[in-house]
Amino acid sequence: MKTETDAALIDLSAAKEKKVKQKEKDSIQRYLGALSFSELIDETSSLIAEINKTGSTKEMISQSKLVLKELGERFSHSHGLSESFLKMKKDLENRLS
């Protein structure tokens, strides 16, 4: 039988796990933001190769979304590239979900 103490421990554990995941996400976002465009493309190619090789996991899907977000932000400054990228991004997100 669960007590109030058990429920509090579970909630605290879930909160800690959520905080760790958010820190990891923030760290990856900073890393991607610091890359040059060429390095970001290389990172994207490596990620695609890894997904093709091992299949997608929750972590890979999460990282893919962050890469797509960073690419989208960089492409948003070029109208022609932006339209093509947004279509590609939407197609990829549909495939990931």
The 3D shape can be described as globular
Sheet with the most strands, sense and barrel status: none
Measured distance between first and last alpha carbons: 37 Å
In helices, the fraction of residues equals over 70%
Count of domain modules: 1
Class by helix and strand content? mainly alpha
The proportion of residues in beta strands is under 5%
| Low-confidence region ranges | none
| β-strand number | 0
Treating each run of at least 4 consecutive H or I residues as one helix, how many helices?
A: 4
What's the pLDDT, averaged over the residues? 81
What is the N-to-C succession of helices and strands? HHHH
Rg result: 18 Å
How would you describe this protein?
With 97 residues, this protein is mainly alpha-helical. The chain has one domain. 88% of the residues lie in helices and 0% in strands. The protein is built from 4 helices and no strands. Helix 1 packs across helix 3, helix 2 packs antiparallel against helix 3 and helix 3 packs antiparallel against helix 4. The longest helix is centred in the first third of the chain and has 31 residues. The chain is globular and about 50 Å long. The N and C termini lie far apart (37 Å).
